[in-house]
TrEMBL record, chain A:
Gene3D superfamilies: Hypothetical protein YojF
Protein name: DUF1806 domain-containing protein
Domain of life of the source: Bacteria
Record Pfam families: DUF1806
InterPro entries (UniProt xref): DUF1806 (IPR014934), YojF_sf (IPR036492)
Automatic annotation (TrEMBL), chain B:
Gene source species: Mesobacillus selenatarsenatis (strain DSM 18680 / JCM 14380 / FERM P-15431 / SF-1)
Domain of life: Bacteria
Required co-factors: Zn(2+)
Protein name: LmbE family protein
Gene Ontology molecular function, alphabetical: hydrolase activity, acting on carbon-nitrogen (but not peptide) bonds, in linear amides
Length: 115, 222
């Protein structure tokens, strides 16, 4: 993955506009967060292959970045995005890596279901 | 260490075996005992992507699958079963299905020793669900016919609640194999090994104890 280049990510987001796409969204502190630090409240959320169609999408901020997808009856968004990749299947992979390089958040968009 | 007929190791994540059990596994292999490692998931949800990162969320499963095979080879395991579950979802699966899966492995392999996590004392929800499924499967077997069940525990309250481990193996004779197994899980362990390298070189007692002692609790059926 490479550090976010706003124009490239925005272009990729626009390419999926008005198409039926599969979304992977996750946020995590890791399963050991509360074990390693008892005062830490561990939380996370995960959805894989949610089928949505969005009418607009934007990546914004000064880094780490925020990305929002406007869907017919609501929104999908992620914050803390630092890296991106358009993989060999044409999927847009966005990720946020924490200060230790560990994945903290991911938002991915694909025209076919993720495995 | 007793010579076993067959050892069955059941953990949910590639690398679960490396830290706490790979020395024990290598020792059994050295005694000529067949070892089967059943690994439930591919650790798809790992947060370490390598340092510098060489994996992403979508490439991680294939990378960790290869790492798992490399680690198995390092330990001398020639029966590696990848059970096809998804990381962090084991606890949401049907419990009877998981129990039956463990029962079928035990029936097929007839192990004299089963190694897994101690349910209630192993921190990660996948560890807990895996250990619990193995315990349910072993519990179904009449007490006289049960294989030994050695469990790994590391929650903060484990010693307080289940006492000190009743089995501690000094695996220093196969420490190199253990380090190779840990190293094989490169995406997950590179950072940690880098931090450990100096301590190992200086023979830091705490690090050596962590590496050379593998601790198990014999499961207590109520």
């Amino acid at each position: 993955m490479d550090p976010v280049i706003l124009s490239e990510v925005q272009e990729a987001l626009d390419r999926f506009k008005d198409k039926e796409v599969y979304v992977h969204l996750e946020t995590t502190n890791g399963a050991y967060a509360s074990h390693n630090n008892e005062s830490f409240f561990s939380s996370g959320a995960y959805i894989r292959n949610a089928k949505v169609t969005y009418e607009r999408a934007k990546i914004t901020g000064e880094g780490p970045y925020r990305t929002g997808l406007k869907i017919p009856f609501g929104w999908v968004y992620a914050e803390g995005i630092t890296h991106f990749e358009i993989d060999d299947k044409g999927r847009l992979l966005l990720a946020g890596h924490d200060f230790n390089g560990k994945l903290a958040v991911a938002l991915e968009i694909s025209e076919t279901p993720f495995e | 260490m007793e010579k076993e007929r067959h050892v069955l190791v059941v953990f949910p994540h590639p690398d679960d075996e490396a830290f706490g059990v790979s020395g024990t596994i290598a020792s059994h292999v050295n005694l000529g005992t067949p070892v089967t490692y059943a690994c439930l998931t591919l650790g798809q949800m790992g947060r370490n992507m390598g340092n510098p990162p060489f994996a992403n969320r979508e490439t991680l499963p294939a990378i960790r699958k290869k790492e798992l095979k490399d680690a198995a080879r390092a330990m001398g395991i020639n029966d590696l079963r990848m059970l096809g579950f998804r990381d962090k979802t084991v606890e949401f699966e049907d419990e009877n299905m998981l129990t039956n899966l463990m029962s079928s492995l035990i029936t097929e392999l007839n192990p004299s020793l089963v190694i897994t996590f101690y349910p209630g004392y192993s921190v990660h929800p996948d560890h807990e669900a895996t250990g619990a499924a193995v315990v349910r499967a072993v519990e179904k077997i009449p007490a006289a016919d049960r294989p030994k069940l050695h469990c790994v525990a590391f929650s903060r309250n484990c010693v307080e609640e289940i006492g000190e481990p009743d089995i501690v193996y000094d695996i220093s004779a196969v420490a190199d194999i253990k380090l190779d197994a840990i190293r094989a899980h490169r995406s997950q362990t590179e950072l940690m090994l880098e931090e450990m390298a100096d301590k190992l070189k200086e023979k830091d007692p705490k690090t050596l104890a962590w590496l050379n002692n593998e601790r198990f609790w014999t499961y207590k059926f109520s």
